[in-house]
Design brief:
This protein is mainly β. It is 8% helix and 56% strand. The chain is globular.
Length: 342
Amino acid sequence: MKRFTKVMLFCGLALMMAAPAMADYSLYGSVRMATYYQTLGYPDGVIDANGDDSDSDLKWELAGNSRIGGKFNTGDLSGRFEYGTGVNLRLLYGSWDFGNGTLTIGQDYTLYGFGSGEAAYEDNGSAGFGDVYDGRLPQIRVELKNGFWFAGIKNNAQSMDDGSGSYDYYLPKLAVGYMHDLGYLAYGASVAYQTYDFNDDSIDSYLAAFNWKTNAGAVALQGNLFYGQNLGDFGLVGTGWIDDEFASYGNGNDATTYGGYVQAAYQFPKFLGLAGVGYQSNDRDDYAEKDDQIGYFVQAEVPVADGFTIVPVVSYYDFMDDAAGVGQGDYLWAGIKWQMDF
């Protein structure tokens, strides 16, 4: 399958080069190296074979979100494809400008919010610590020029349906939102709903999110607030270092999650400095206590040459106590992200 994908990608690139009159197009790429020291503090009571309650290692590898892609435009139609390492398909969609807006079909980012600029953990962007991100998903989306947008998105039950139980789903994930950009201030709000049946249970999820960013004065601010139900079932994703970063339906109980992050950026003479903090809390009737986590980051985006940036960064994740009141440990990242865009 990987060989077939590579052959198809090569053929597509060759066709683009051989038929430049068919459409306006451009190619792009981004190579990212992750070079970090990472320290994982184990949950309470966990000791490894060496008698240690933490483990430190070096991460030195090509970041999984490195990519190569292309953009196309012909008349009222435009399109984009993007492949990552692997080779895995990141983006593949087409858009039609129908005058009062655009219709997009294919695999693209969802529009719930602005991810933070956090570079650690391969550009985590505060996922699991206040951001709302469910990936690059197949969808049909309409964006109107008045700022409103509507989308039917792949139901997450399709990804969870592994034959271990009876999944039934008859609707896509449904989302509606509004975005407005005043230049000095951009803001947006969105709501989304998903439903599916698993065995004898009907599992309903919803998400409400509000996000903003400023572009005026010496300090640029950016943030997000959200609240939702059964967001693990909905498909929101975090770092993946602990289970149930977004709580799911269980034991006959719906789970609720709320959180948010705020980021500040300041342009120094030689680099852009960023710092942020994000928080998230899960709760369910059968929990002994709320399951919280908080994350912090500070970094500098230092331009070395045109298209070449290095980002020294420190991120710290405190997973706090789980639903049973047991400490879940912590995670520290310290190092440099190297990025060349072409």
